[in-house]
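Category: protein sequence paired with discrete backbone structure
Discipline: computational structural biology
Format: plain text, a pair of labelled lines
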Amino acid sequence: MTTPHATPSWPNLPEVARDVLLEVLIHGPLSRAEIAARLRLSRPTLTRLTKALVSDGLLVEGETKPAPSVGRPSEMLHVRGEAHRFLGVKLTAERLFATVTDLTAIPLDTTEEPLHSHDPDEVVAQVAKVAARFPGITGIGVTLGGIVLDGLVARHEFLGWTDVPLKTALTGATGIPTAVDNDVQALTAAEHWFGPGAGLESMAVITVGAGVGTGLIVDGRLVRGAHGLHPHFSHTLVDSNGPLCGCGRRGCISSYLMTHMMMRRLAGNPAYEEALDRVRAGDPEARRVFDDAGYALGVLIGTVANVIDPQKVLLTGEGLPLYEVSSRFVHDGIEDTYEDDPDLIELDVQPFDFREWARSGAALAIKATITGSIRDRPEGTPRRVGRR
């Protein structure tokens, strides 16, 4: 009898088989000839690998593709999405968002609820209860803001956490292999694999809202520093005479763009939606704050573009409405910062939805399961990360 925590068996795949599965997962249905050419594998080796992946239920043969010249049509290999299910969880300071997907990151079910406590043990227990509602999950991916090192939440400002071994705790509480990562890093990887960045070799993801996040794809890979840290641009200087930032300096990008910092500059410290209403109604104070934020966002976009020359800059986050009301100032900031023709920057403004962030947690679990990192040894001694 299947218990709520029973997990389908994931086969122990050799590295080259993982490469084959990832190639079809990321690029869509491919013929054996296409896979062999992409991965530089001999046809006999590719045939042996795909036979094993089909036997394991991970790949399935689908429709045929006409041959480029006279000959037999090529059978296409597809990832068998229904073979496994994954749970993605996005934690904010106030709420828990969860999405169940198949192996191809297609959402199957979603739920959300208030986060009952910031105590790490109680958060783990709440995530475990959510996981128990979805039997047959192969892996769990949890994302949250802050610094995450090998599944250890080294620091999370809004939850007040320091050195919380979240990956180990959740795996123990659920009995399901679990991956944990920074939310922007996970979102960047998910959008590169399964979203508007699919197939791109370079891309930047910029998120604005309670925090300011940046994720980078370079040479087709997610950028992660030598010490496991994700890219930081939030304290790039916009104006040395600007608002006071939490870091103690003035005029950082964060001091203009973080929603709570924006609201502090407005009389009455309004809610974000109320401030937007003021802008749309022509309030000059609110207009100035949002236009300043728009310009700072442009500086951020231009700075990132100077660093990696991305094929695309994807913009999202709960603070995204500022682009709607102050887009002209965003483009002014880009023009004043970017060292080439601003028309070279392809800006992709994506509608914000926390369910997409939860989906990125499922994508994290999918990636970690295929690569085997979800079963890495538990975290060791917590590593201290100094404040910047």
About this structure: DSSP finds twelve helices and 16 strands in the chain. Residues 284-308 form the longest helix (25 residues). The two ends are 52 Å apart (CA to CA). The CA atoms of residues 59 and 79 lie 5 Å apart.
